[in-house]
Amino acid sequence: MKNFEKFVNHIASEWRKKQKTILESGGLTGISNKEAGLKAELFLLKRMNQILPTYKTVKSKGSFTPADIYAVGYRKNYWHIMLIQVKSAKKGYAIHKLNQSEVSELKELAKLINKEIKTSELTKDYQEKAIVITIG
């Protein structure tokens, strides 16, 4: 998808205008949330770049939206956009279940993306295409 990184930056800007900035409380013992989160994001980005069919991944700048990583790939007959919130865990590769508030914020972000895809100049080539947005 052309202009995907620019589109993600546009979405972050729109989210900041309409929503609050996402800030985490608490932290892991020993390393900061920021450091642990960055390590987890880089690990996931590396893994996502190995997925076939290929996905273009973009790491969100800062914690300004509920999604830390945005990914887009073309599947047989539709574009697939993934909104991924990365959580660090004390137990290395433990999977963190998102709470209802986190899921709600990702859903709101997906609605904003859906609206912006239909109106943004950056995505004019995709406005009539089938697009599926998933969150997690």
**Biggest sheet: strands side by side, in what order?**
1-2-3-4
Number of helices: 3
Helical content band: 25-40%
> Runs with pLDDT <50, length 5+?
none
Give average pLDDT, whole number.
81
Largest sheet: 4 strands, mixed
Quantity of strands, as a count? 4
**What Rg is obtained from the alpha carbons, in whole angstroms?**
15 Å
Task: Identify the overall geometry.
Answer: globular
Strand content: 15-25%
Assembly level: single chain
Describe this structure in words.
The structure is a single chain. With 136 residues, the chain is an alpha+beta fold. 38% of the residues lie in helices and 18% in strands. It has three helices and four strands; from the N terminus they run H-H-E-E-E-H-E. A four-stranded mixed beta sheet has the order 1-2-3-4, sandwiched between helices. It is globular and about 45 Å long.
Write the layout of secondary structure elements.
Layout: H1 4-18, H2 33-48, E1 55-59, E2 69-75, E3 78-84, H3 100-119, E4 131-135
Parallel strand pairs: 3-4
Antiparallel strand pairs: 1-2, 2-3
Short account of what is shown:
By secondary structure, this protein is of the alpha+beta class. It contains 3 helices and 4 strands, in the order H-H-E-E-E-H-E.
Question: Top keywords for this entry?
Answer:
4 strands; 3 helices; alpha+beta
